[in-house]
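Backbone shape codes:
***
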Amino acid sequence: MYRCSRVVLTAHRASISLSSRRTLKYTINTTDPFSLTGTGQSKQTVVVLKGHLNSKLVGRQMTFRVNLTGPPPWGFRICGGRDFKRTLTVSKVHEGGRARDAGLRAGDVILEINGQDTGAMLNVEAQNKIKINEDQLCLLIERW
């Protein structure tokens, strides 16, 4: 058993660095984005990680993209923004919504909306940027 020291996620791949200085490469299952399957560098042992990749599992912060395809509603609410002096955060994810299906969770910090940084956005600006999208919404998310 190795302790995980770093996780890097991209659209379809995950790289997990272990305390043993080994790095495992995984392919993300497109039907269940929170299941990773694959082999380590030795290619002898197949490792399956089930469950959500969050701080309880990896102990580190992760940044990844969530792509939602339309039409709206997207199925989540936000709070925070420059006017509230808080980071823009997902406050609620509705059961059965597109956001839940894509893996978004309450507490996720939204760093970008369709490539635009949210650091200086007012809450209403962020809401409008989310609502204006008819076909696709791309969020850069930070999760602890």
Summary: Residues 4-60 form one domain. The CA atoms of residues 10 and 117 lie 18 Å apart. The longest strand covers residues 62-69.
